[in-house]
Every structure is written in structure tokens, then in C-alpha cells.
User: Which sequence fits this backbone?
């Protein structure tokens, strides 16, 4: 029987959403969404008000669906709080108790997961160290910067060693170094076979992962793809921004294949229209040949256009 | 149900309340001021205006033989005022204290957006409710006990030093103390019920503090002789409040909707 259940889960996925509808008054936040999530990273993205955070909260059992169902390991997370023993949510605000110290916050949440006190301290110290926040363990939360609070909130989410991790904008307010650390932690956890659902609006974050990618719009799942497939499809007709280390001549810029515009007569950034990744290589080859140094290629504008 | 989870929530909430000066300051300061200032005021009035006042009040309120002795009149007046007039005023304390803590405990989580993190743990609704009720009830009871004790000690010191008698405790006085937790539970229940419908702690406090209105009738009822706080009446009040507690707690458990607090 156990074998059958395990096999069924492998086929069905760890998280199953079927025809999920969640309304707030007349507003439909999630509209007939169906999806299945297994091990690895799934990124959910979309414009403001698309229903990303609501979907995450329905999975965590914080919201009761108006219709349809959510199942985590075969259980309804809204009715069965035990499904949250191995599932953790990082909310889009830091959600820490301001008048308590960092360690008191972590101890409190650890106790609710029935983690022994010594083990809480051990795990909390390790997690805080990994995000360079151990020095704040005895500081009251209200004294911390927004970024440090986010790091502590991330530590809280990982404290219970979750098998399913739901992350709502985990790198919001973090500096580049901390963002990189968080991404490393997420990738490391995914490689251990955990299920990670990651909501983000930071379009520059998406291509950093080799992951499943779901687009939500007006509460509906409009695209279910992968990050690499999406960027491949996006390449057709997209406008990319090539950022340069120093200004280049106007002629060099305008002769770049697909050139549309530069940010000045002697630009440090040019917009190039592409139809495939090959076109990027052509543009880059032309610029390199002309002595330019490229510091980055930005797809953001195109992704934003796809969002709206 | 895991009581350990409820206890952890209660400890966390109490820690939060008592480390916030803006919440703990008025919550502790006002009762302490009452406990220190009101016996002094009562004593002063008893010493200087009691004979005249006592003859007026007692002729209506108490079938007490008015003695010609000034000190006995003053002592009787102080006893009457301390128990029947100020006693009910002290009953507003468990309501006010419980409403402040309960509002902060339930709706404060919504205001500070910490509810999501708390509700995303495997804590059951029953554990959560019990923890929050404990967080509001324990400090309220301790504070009420402390204030009643302080008030009693000061009143006795003053009455003994001037009139040679200890005025407190009396049975009605102890019954007033006995009633306090029942009032606190009703208040907490009301806060839980309104928590789904209000946006902030202030709204919840304002609604729950309406419960002090019936209490404030009691001193006037005693002064005018309409209803004396006899042992029997106080026992009836305790019984009524116990039933109200069961009803309010039942409704609060049934109507508690964590989704509306997120």
C-alpha cells in the first residue's frame, strides 16, 4: 500500500491543484488554476495582482479555496495542519515579531515545529551565518534593516528543514551578495530533492534558474514552461539591451546587426532587435570586433512586455 | 491538542506586550495609579466630609445605624465607599487590561502582518486560540490580583491608622475579585469575535471596552440604594458571567476565521 501511495505521488506530484478558484469579494484572485508540482524549483511569475501570492497561500492552507482543491501529499492543507510540518512559507513581508530578538523569533517558530531547543539554536546559528546575519542574533528585529529582516525571515522559513518550500519574493530587499547566497541555498535544496515554489516579479531573477516557469495573469495560468524554453521563445522579435563598459562610436553602434537605438550619440548601452539567440551572438561579435567591452545583456524589457 | 504550542504562543505574546512601553505603560500605569490614589482620596473624603455624606448616603443605601461617633461614621463611610463604589470601578480593570492584550494578541498579528508566518506553522486553531486566550488572561488576572491587594493594603493601613479598624477584605470585596476573571474571559471572547470584522487593534479595543458600561452602573446603584452589592447579587452576577463566558467562548471558537486575520 505504501509503495502504491508513493508511486501515485510520483505520478501525481507532491502538490496538486485542481480547478482552484479563490475570490475576495468580487475580485477573483485565482481563476480555475490547475497544476501539479513535484521535486525541484518552480517559478511563478506574472504582473501585479496576477494571483501569485494568493496561489502560494492556498497551497500553504492559509486560504480556503472557493472551489476546486489543493492537495499536499494527498491532504488538504487548509483542513489538515499536519501538512505544514514539512512545508514552510516565506511571506512577501518579513513577518517577524519586532519587539523580540532575532533568536527569540527563531526559537518561537522552532518550538511550533517541535524542534528541541538546542537543535533550534544550532540550526538558527548555522542559517544566520550562511546569510552573514549571525551578528544580529541578539538584536531586536525593529532595529534591523529591511534586508537583514528578510535574511532572518528566510532563516525562519528554513528552520524546520522543509521538504516543501514556498517562497514569496525571497530576494526582495537583499543586496546582490545576499541574493546570490539565497539563490545558492535554493538551488542546493532543490538538488536535495525538495519541492520549491518560488514567486517572483524580478524578471532578471528568472533566467538565473534552470527551472519550471509558470505565468499567471488575472488569476489564470497562461503559460507553463521552463526558464530556458521561455527565453528561447522570447528571443523571436525581442529587444535586448547590450550594456557596454565604455562609450562606443555612433557608427559602430548603428552598424550593429539589429540596432534600434543607443542611450546617447556615443552610447554605453544599445537596444538590439533579435529573432533568435544567434542574432545576439552576431551583435556581440560585431561589438567585440569593434573593440567594445560588453558588461551585460539585459532581456528585462522583453520579459516585461510578455507580462503585460 | 498540544498545550506546549499554546504555551509558546502565550509566552511570545506576553513578551511582546510587556516589552512594548506604549502598550505595557498605560496598561500597568493606570491600575497602579488607581490602586494608590483612590484609597488616599477615599481616606481624605472619609476624614473630612464623611459624617455629613454618610448620613445622606446611608439613610438611602444601608440600613446602618448612624452613630454619633465621628470616627465610626468615617470608618463606615470609607468601608462603604471602598467596597460598593470603588469596587465596581476596579472591575473595569480586567476588562480594560484584557481588551488591550487580546486586541494586540489577535488583531496586532494582522496589523503587523505576522499572522501569515504564524498560521503557516503546523499549529492547530485550538492551540492558537488557547495560547492567545492564555496570553490575555494570565496577565489580566495577575494584574487584577496585584491591584486589589495593593488597594486593600493601603486602605487597611489608612483605616487602621486613623480609625483603628481593618476594612478589607469583606465577602463582597472577595466576590468582586472572584468575578474579575469571568469579566476578562468575556472581554477576550468579544475581541476574538470582532477580530474577523475589524481592521485595527483600536477598533477592537473600543468595541470590547463597551463592556465597562454595565459595570459603571453598579456604583450608582449602590449610592442611590437601587441595588446593593450583596453576596447574593454578586453570586448571581458571577453565575451570569460564567454562562456568558461559555457562550462567548463557544461563539468565538466557532467564528474564529484565521483567513480574515491575514
Assistant:
Amino acid at each position: 500500500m505504501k509503495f502504491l501511495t508513493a508511486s501515485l505521488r510520483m505520478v501525481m506530484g507532491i502538490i496538486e491543484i485542481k480547478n482552484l478558484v479563490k475570490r475576495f469579494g468580487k475580485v477573483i484572485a485565482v481563476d480555475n488554476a490547475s497544476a501539479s508540482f513535484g521535486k525541484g524549483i518552480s517559478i511563478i511569475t506574472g504582473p501585479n495582482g496576477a494571483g501569485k501570492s494568493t496561489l502560494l497561500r492556498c497551497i500553504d492552507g492559509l486560504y480556503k479555496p472557493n472551489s476546486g482543491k489543493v492537495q499536499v501529499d494527498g491532504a488538504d492543507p487548509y483542513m489538515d495542519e499536519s501538512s505544514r510540518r514539512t512545508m514552510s512559507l516565506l511571506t512577501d513581508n518579513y513577518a517577524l515579531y519586532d519587539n523580540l530578538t532575532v533568536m527569540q523569533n527563531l526559537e518561537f517558530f522552532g518550538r511550533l515545529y517541535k524542534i528541541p531547543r538546542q537543535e533550534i539554536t544550532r540550526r538558527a546559528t548555522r542559517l544566520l551565518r550562511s546569510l552573514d546575519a549571525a551578528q544580529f542574533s541578539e538584536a531586536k528585529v525593529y532595529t534591523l534593516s529591511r534586508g537583514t529582516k528578510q535574511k532572518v525571515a528566510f532563516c525562519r522559513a528554513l528552520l524546520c528543514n522543509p521538504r516543501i518550500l514556498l517562497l514569496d519574493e525571497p530576494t526582495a530587499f537583499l543586496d546582490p551578495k545576499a541574493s546570490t547566497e539565497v539563490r545558492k541555498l535554493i538551488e542546493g535544496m532543490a538538488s536535495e530533492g525538495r519541492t520549491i515554489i518560488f514567486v517572483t516579479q524580478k524578471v532578471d531573477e528568472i533566467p538565473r534558474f534552470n527551472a519550471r516557469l509558470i505565468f499567471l495573469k488575472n488569476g489564470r495560468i497562461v503559460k507553463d514552461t521552463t526558464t530556458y524554453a521561455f527565453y528561447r521563445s522570447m528571443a523571436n522579435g525581442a529587444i535586448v539591451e547590450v550594456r557596454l563598459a565604455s562609450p562606443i562610436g555612433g557608427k559602430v553602434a548603428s552598424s550593429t546587426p539589429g540596432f534600434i537605438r543607443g542611450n546617447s550619440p556615443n552610447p554605453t548601452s544599445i537596444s538590439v532587435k533579435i529573432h533568435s539567440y544567434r542574432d545576439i551572438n552576431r551583435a556581440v561579435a560585431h561589438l567585440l570586433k569593434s573593440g567594445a567591452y560588453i558588461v551585460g545583456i539585459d532581456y528585462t524589457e522583453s520579459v516585461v512586455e510578455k507580462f503585460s | 491538542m498540544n498545550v506546549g504550542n499554546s504555551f509558546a504562543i502565550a509566552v511570545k505574546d506576553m513578551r511582546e506586550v510587556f516589552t512594548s512601553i506604549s502598550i505595557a505603560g498605560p496598561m500597568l500605569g493606570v491600575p497602579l495609579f488607581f490602586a494608590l490614589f483612590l484609597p488616599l482620596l477615599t481616606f481624605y473624603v472619609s476624614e473630612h466630609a464623611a459624617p455629613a455624606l454618610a448620613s445622606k448616603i446611608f439613610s438611602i443605601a444601608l440600613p446602618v445605624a448612624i452613630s454619633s461617633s465621628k470616627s465610626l461614621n468615617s470608618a463606615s463611610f470609607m468601608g462603604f465607599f471602598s467596597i460598593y463604589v470603588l469596587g465596581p470601578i476596579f472591575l473595569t480593570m480586567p476588562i480594560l487590561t484584557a481588551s488591550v492584550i487580546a486586541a494586540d494578541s489577535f488583531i496586532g498579528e494582522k496589523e503587523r502582518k505576522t499572522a501569515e508566518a504564524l498560521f503557516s506553522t503546523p499549529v492547530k486553531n485550538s492551540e492558537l486560540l488557547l495560547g492567545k486566550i492564555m496570553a490575555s488572561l494570565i496577565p489580566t488576572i495577575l494584574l487584577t490580583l496585584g491591584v486589589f491587594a495593593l488597594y486593600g493594603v493601603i486602605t487597611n493601613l489608612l483605616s487602621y491608622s486613623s480609625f483603628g479598624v481593618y476594612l478589607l477584605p469583606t465577602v463582597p470585596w472577595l466576590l468582586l475579585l472572584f468575578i474579575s476573571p469571568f469579566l476578562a474571559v468575556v472581554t477576550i471572547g468579544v475581541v476574538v469575535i470582532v477580530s474577523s470584522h475589524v481592521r485595527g487593534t483600536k477598533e477592537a479595543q473600543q468595541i470590547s471596552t463597551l463592556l465597562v458600561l454595565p459595570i459603571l452602573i453598579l456604583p450608582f446603584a449602590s449610592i442611590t440604594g437601587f441595588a446593593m452589592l450583596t453576596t447574593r447579587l454578586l453570586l448571581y452576577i458571577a453565575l451570569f458571567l460564567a454562562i456568558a463566558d461559555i457562550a462567548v467562548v463557544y461563539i468565538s471558537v466557532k467564528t474564529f476565521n484565521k483567513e480574515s486575520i491575514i
